[in-house]
């Protein structure tokens, strides 16, 4: 199976960084891992078009977790491209209700107000996922030689996508904005630690994070001092 990877980096509001989406070209169609935030929609569409991804051949949008900087364009892409949306059910309430703290520890009132102002999800961008994915789920029916890996910690429903060749799309569990590290923003540190140990037991070569540059898994396991 052909599985070319195109990284699409989208800027976030207020210059607070960027988020990565990954377009996978299979033998017959395309798969998008994460959809970015709504302010990057025009750039995302342009990148998809330039890659040859058009309405009708984007088969699946896989969301690694429910944060709005990863999910806000999913409903739009489903409507325009006819793609199905998949994610883990433990995060699905975030996008269904437009509440990034659904199934999470509740923040203080000021933090919630700030998040709602900066990353609020409009009614038109909310959605119910078409496919609920589980740990170990095979994606070959979409022409993708890969499986879903359940890696909670950043959120309760965080997943990764691991290909047969050892590429891992890790969502926000690991980041590489400076060097490969465990994300400091964690819902459950113990779950995150267990997820990291789970990944260390797997044959992983290149890691594609939600934020920052791709890196070799060995750089995370054995960092240079």
Describe this entry's structure for a reader:
- This protein has 225 residues and is α/β, with parallel strands linked by helices.
- The protein has a single domain (4-221), classed as Ribonuclease Z/Hydroxyacylglutathione hydrolase-like (Metallo-beta-lactamase, Chain A, 4-Layer Sandwich), CATH 3.60.15.10.
- The chain has helices at 41-50, 68-71, 74-81, 89-97, 109-119, 189-200, 217-221, and strands at residues 4-11, 18-25, 30-33, 58-62, 84-87, 131-132, 146-150, 159-163, 168-171, 174-175, 181-182, 206-209, 215-216.
- Strands 1-2-3-4-5-6 form a six-stranded mixed beta sheet. Strands 7-8-9-12-13 form a five-stranded mixed beta sheet.
- It is globular and about 45 Å long.
Key attributes of the depicted protein:
6-stranded mixed β-sheet; alpha/beta; 13 strands; single chain; 225 residues; Metallo-beta-lactamase, Chain A
**CATH class descriptor:** Alpha Beta
Largest sheet: 6 strands, mixed
Classified in CATH, the superfamily is Ribonuclease Z/Hydroxyacylglutathione hydrolase-like
Spell out the helices and strands N to C: EEEHEHHEHHEEEEEEHEEH
Uncertain stretches: none
Number of helices: 7
Task: Quickly give the CATH architecture.
Answer: 4-Layer Sandwich
Task: Trace the largest sheet across and list its strands.
Answer: 1-2-3-4-5-6
Rg from alpha-carbon coordinates: 16 Å
Structural domains: how many: 1
What name does the CATH topology carry? Metallo-beta-lactamase, Chain A
């Amino acid at each position: 199976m052909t599985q070319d990877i195109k990284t699409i980096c989208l800027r976030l509001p207020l210059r607070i960084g960027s988020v990565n989406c990954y377009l996978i070209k299979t033998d017959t169609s395309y798969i998008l891992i994460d959809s970015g935030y709504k302010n990057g929609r025009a750039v995302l569409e342009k990148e998809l078009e330039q890659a040859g991804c058009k309405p009708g051949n984007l088969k699946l949008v896989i969301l690694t977790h429910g944060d709005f900087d990863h999910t806000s364009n999913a409903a739009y892409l489903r409507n325009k491209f006819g793609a199905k949306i998949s994610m883990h059910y433990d995060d699905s309430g975030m996008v269904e209700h437009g509440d990034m703290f659904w199934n999470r520890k509740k923040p203080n009132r000021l933090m919630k107000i700030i998040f709602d102002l900066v990353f609020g999800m409009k009614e038109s961008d909310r959605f119910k996922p078409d496919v609920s994915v589980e740990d170990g789920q095979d994606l070959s029916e979409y022409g993708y030689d890969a499986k879903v890996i359940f890696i909670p910690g950043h959120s309760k429903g965080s997943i990764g996508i691991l290909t047969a060749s050892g590429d891992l799309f890790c969502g926000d569990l690991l980041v590489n904005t400076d060097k490969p590290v465990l994300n400091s923003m964690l819902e459950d540190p113990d779950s995150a630690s267990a997820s990291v140990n789970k990944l260390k037991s797997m044959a992983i070569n290149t890691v594609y994070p939600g934020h920052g540059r791709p890196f070799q898994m060995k750089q995370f396991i054995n960092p240079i001092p």
